[in-house]
Every structure is written in C-alpha cells, then in structure tokens.
Specification:
Layout: E1 6-14, H1 20-28, E2 46-52, E3 55-61, H2 71-85, E4 89-95, H3 102-114, E5 120-125, H4 132-145, E6 150-153, H5 162-172, E7 186-187, H6 190-205, E8 215-223, E9 229-237, H7 240-247, H8 252-269, E10 273-281, H9 289-295
Parallel strand pairs: 1-3, 1-4, 4-5, 5-6, 9-10
Antiparallel strand pairs: 2-3, 2-7, 8-9
This protein binds guanosine-5'-triphosphate and magnesium ion.
Magnesium ion binds next to helix 1.
Length: 304
Amino acid sequence: MTEATRAGFIALIGEPNAGKSTLLNRMVGAKVSIVTHKVQTTRARIRGVAMEGQAQLVFVDTPGLFRPRRRLDRAMVAAAWSGASDADIVVLLVEAHRGITEGVSAIMDGLAERTAGAPVVLAINKIDRVKSDVLLGLTKELNDRFAFEETFMISAEKGHGVDALRQWLAGKVPEGPWLYPEDQLADAPMRQIAAEITREKLTLRLHQELPYQMTVETENWEEQKDGSARIEQLIYVIRDGHKGIVLGAKGETIKAVGKAAREELVEFLGRKVHLFLQVKVRPGWLEESERYSEMGLDFKDGNE
Ligand SMILES: Nc1nc2c(ncn2[C@@H]2O[C@H](COP(=O)(O)OP(=O)(O)OP(=O)(O)O)[C@@H](O)[C@H]2O)c(=O)[nH]1
Ligand SMILES: [Mg+2]
C-alpha cells in the first residue's frame, strides 16, 4: 500500500532578522524570498513549497513581528499574524545569540491567542553563532514560558538541523491531497518576485532609513519573440534627495543595482532578461492603497 499524501501550511514567524526567509529558501531549495542583513526586509506573506516524501509542506514566510509605528509597519505585522492564524503549524524562530529579547517576549505573549490552536514549534536559529551550552538554558527558559510542541536547534544559513525539522513537519501536517503541483516552488506572481529581487539589491546598497522609504513595482512585463523577457520597474522614493542617492554619482548606484537584479532574474527565469529601472519621487506613497496591494498587503490593516 502506498503512503497517504499529506499537505499543510507552515507559518514561519519571529522578530525581524530572525532568519525566516533564509529558512524558507533553504526548505524550498531555491531563493523565493529576499534576504538581507537588515531588519524588516520581508513585507508580505510569501509561500514556498517543499516536498518531503509524500508530504507537501507549504511554508509561509511572514514579515517580522515588532512594535509598529507607521501604516506600513502595522500592515506588515497584521499580515504576519494572519499568516500564523491561517496555518496548520506555526514555527517560531528565535535567534540563539540574542535569546529572549523584549521582542521575543512580546511575541510569546500573543502566541496562544493568535495561533488559533495550531501547534507551535520552537526553532532556535543561528546556532552557528553560539556555544552549545547556551542552547540548553535557552531551550528550557523558552519552554518554561510557552508549551511548544517541540524544539529544534537549527542554522537556516548553514543547514544544520533543518532536515530534522522538515521531517518532523512532514509527519505532522494533515493527511490530504497536495495543494500545489509537485514542481511548483513559490506562490507569488512573477512580477512581484521580480520587484522583490530589485528591492533586495537596493536595500543592500542603501543606508539608514532609505530602504524603509522606498518600494519597487513591476510596471510592465513583455515576452519577446526571442524568448527573453523585457521588464520595466519603478522605484518609488519619498524625496528628491533620495532619488539622487538611488541613482548615485553618474547613475552608478542604479546601474549596479540593475545589473545585480538582472543577473538574479536570469538565474530565476532561466532565460535572457532586459531590465529597465526608473526612479520616481512620490512623497505620499506610504499612504497610497495601491502601493499596498502591489506589495501584497492590505491597506486597511495599516489603520490605527
Ligand atoms: N549566522 C547565521 N546567520 C543567519 C542564519 N539564518 C539567517 N541568517 C542571517 O540573518 C539575516 C536575516 O535573515 P533573513 O532571512 O532576511 O531574516 P528574516 O527573519 O526573514 O527578516 P525580516 O524579513 O526582516 O523579518 C541575514 O543576514 C541572514 O544571512 C543562521 O542560521 N546563521
Ligand atoms: Mg524575511
């Protein structure tokens, strides 16, 4: 007799920078969610699909949970919690070297109420950054505070412990038919993934507040006769000065960003790409509902 198929949604939640997107990409085996060393990189829910035996694991990457100040922050945090409440299993990522921060504490306070009874698993991430004796104490402290179903110690970046977590999840998701075709890796429109790739490259090159005050949208996508894709994107910033920074002296910043983004798009799509970037100053974009729907967020979730 063949084993029954299983499938389920697994939400990855945690503080900004905990390594959620890194873990999603590792589980999927491809880069579907952008990663930077900066906080608040992910802005909306992104689904990545992984197969483990007869189980299909649909990982839901979420924006980091933090105390929101702006409309965009509130919409991001709402998207993260709603990802958790829709999931079959929730994985809370905690950074090993930071331990129980104020932020982790606040998340644990909301967990029981906001996960709608789904099992919550603890994944202590970045174990490559600490000595192993730290981990036992941290595991105990966290489990004393919340009834985690299981604790895993992982390094999403190096891959340690990730197989054990994936196998455990595969045995835990409900029996049922697969939710996506077996070979599908991500559930997000290509134009959105393409915009995210450019936003990642920009975020890596821009400093201070600027990454939080810009957004990228794919304006136009044309399939060319020769099999290549012609992609036009708009970068929205809030000030003239920001435009200058994004362009860089003699346009070299945007040129470098465009090159890096194009190379990654070529790898992702497996074909030739022509990428055109344009910067637009739009002082009010953070208060425009269309910008939120382009990002995959609900504008109203940002209401105070
Ligand atoms: N040393 C180490 N670094 C890691 C590990 N996992 C992730 N990182 C790094 O942590 C940083 C943040 O990773 P992300 O995956 O973007 O974190 P995130 O939780 O998705 O962050 P937000 O989207 O901002 O909420 C990146 O620089 C990663 O390379 C790990 O296991 N070990
Ligand atoms: Mg992320």
